[in-house]
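User: quick one - fold this with pyridoxal-5'-phosphate bound?
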Amino acid sequence: MIKQNLAEILSSIPDTVTLVAVSKTKPNEDIMEAYNAGQRIFGENKVQELSSKYESLPRDIEWHMIGHLQRNKVKYIAPFVSLIHGVDSLRLLEEIDKQASKVNRVQDVLLQIHIAKESSKFGLDETELFEILNQLDTFNHVNVRGLMGMATFTEDPNTIINEFSSLKQLFDRAKNKFPSSNLTILSMGMSGDYTMAIENGSTMIRVGSSIFGDRNYN
Ligand SMILES: *Cc1c(COP(=O)(O)O)cnc(C)c1O
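Assistant: Sure. C-alpha cells for the protein plus pyridoxal-5'-phosphate:
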C-alpha cells in the first residue's frame, strides 16, 4: 500500500515539487517500505522520535523537522537534521546558529509564517519575517532557504486557497526585498490540501496520512 500511495502521489505532482514523507508515529518498517520504493526525504515532528529513527535507519535518509521546535532541544538534532521547517522566532534561529556552529554545519531552515485563522498555529507575521531577514548577515551557521505555512483546518477550499496564495505573495515580496537571500523553498500542503498548495506555488509538500494511512495517537 505505502509503495502504491507514494507512486500515485509522485505521478500526480510536478517533478519540481519535493515530497516530504511525514512518518511521525509510524514504525521503522513503514519507513523502510517507502525507502525501498525510493523515497529518501522523511519528516518528523518530535525531537526524540526523529533522533531514534535517525539512529536506526539508513544514513542516506534526509530528515526534516516539521514540528514546533523548542530551543533546548535543538542540540539533539543539530548534528544530522537536513531541514528545519518551523523556525518561528529570532531566538530559535540564534540557538540553531549556535548549535550548528558547534558541529561545524550550516543548517538549512525555513521560517514559519502564520497564515491560518486559528490562533493556535505557530508562525511569524510579515513584519517579524522582514525583521529576521534583515539580520541574516549576523548568522554564519544558518541558511534560510524559504518559508513554511499551514492552512486552516477546514472543509472550505476558498479559505485554504486564500491562505496559500497570501503566503505565496509574501514569499515573492520577501524574495524581491532580499534578492541576495537564498529563498527558494515554499513548504506548504499536506494530505488534504497539497493539490491546492501546488496550484498556488508550493515547491515542497509534507504528506503523511495519504502515504502511510491514518495515525493512531494514544
Ligand atoms: C503531521 C503533519 C503533516 C502531515 O499531515 P497529513 O495530513 O497526515 O498529510 C504536515 N505538516 C506538519 C507540520 C505536520 O505536523
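One thing worth noting: The CA atoms of residues 9 and 191 lie 10 Å apart.
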